[in-house]
Amino acid sequence: MEALEVLFTRRSIRQYTDEPVTEEQVRTLLEAGMNAPSANNRQPWHFIAVDERERLDAIMEVHPYSKMLAQAPLAIIVCADITRSERYWQQDCAAATENILLAARALGLGSVWLGVYPKEDRTEGVTRLFDLPEHIRPLCVIAVGHPAEEAGRVERYDTSKVHRNQW
Q1: Most buried residue, 17, 21, 53, 116, by CB count within 10 Å?
Q2: Would you say residue 79 lies in a domain?
Q3: Chain centroid to CA 57: how far?
Q4: Eight-class DSSP state of 39
Q5: For position 25, what pLDDT does the model report?
Q6: Which CATH number goes with the domain that contains 71?
């Protein structure tokens, strides 16, 4: 799939088949995340690839909008080492997250971004569930799997939001 096709057809997918995500696909997704831009090249990200059913089910107990994990065979938790980037870790990890979402689409997988930070209850729940060290913050969970639904391209270009040279 061409790059622009991936960009324009990426959608949040919440229904998955029972087909597993391969180790090669997981590696590609994580490699895509690690190739994101990063302020001062600090690369504060860490990733937890979760494919154990008990762990996926446990995430649903601490994140109220993660019910699709009942079907998803994989979750990727995007975290940051805040000692590497106190100021820009959210942007760096958001860029890594978007790379993973786009890579999933390019691989024919479906995915959805589930926000964790800055919601204290979600942040504390994920931190506790995965025993994160004090200097590690979870930004989000990404549900990943083979899509059981297809969401087509949606035209979102809006000229009223484009300003040139000034507001």
Answers
A1: 116
A2: yes
A3: 17
A4: G
A5: 98
A6: 3.40.109.10
Q: Is residue 40 situated within a structural domain?
A: yes
The pLDDT score that the predictor gives to residue 124 is 98
Total number of residues shown for the chain: 167
According to the model, what pLDDT value does residue 69 have?
98
Give the residue numbers spanning the domain of 137: 3-149
Structure tokens given for 152: 């087509």
Nearest-5° Cα angle at 75, 70 to 77: 135
Q: Measured between alpha carbons, how far is residue 53 from residues 18, 20, 58, 139, 143 in Å?
A: 12, 12, 9, 21, 13
Number of structural domains (the chain) is: 1
The Cα 107–Cα 10 span in angstroms is: 11
Q: How far apart are CA 111 and CA 94, in angstroms?
A: 15
Return the closest-CA partner of residue 72 out of 16, 3, 25: 16
User: Each residue of 10-39: pLDDT tens digit?
Assistant: 999 999 999 999 999 999 999 999 999 999
Taking the mean position of all CA atoms in its chain, how far away is CA 12?
Answer: 11
* Beta-bridge partners for 44: none
What percentage of residues in the chain have a pLDDT greater than 90? Answer: 96
For residue 79, what pLDDT is reported?
A: 98
Pick the closest to residue 13 from 106, 103, 146 (CA basis). 146
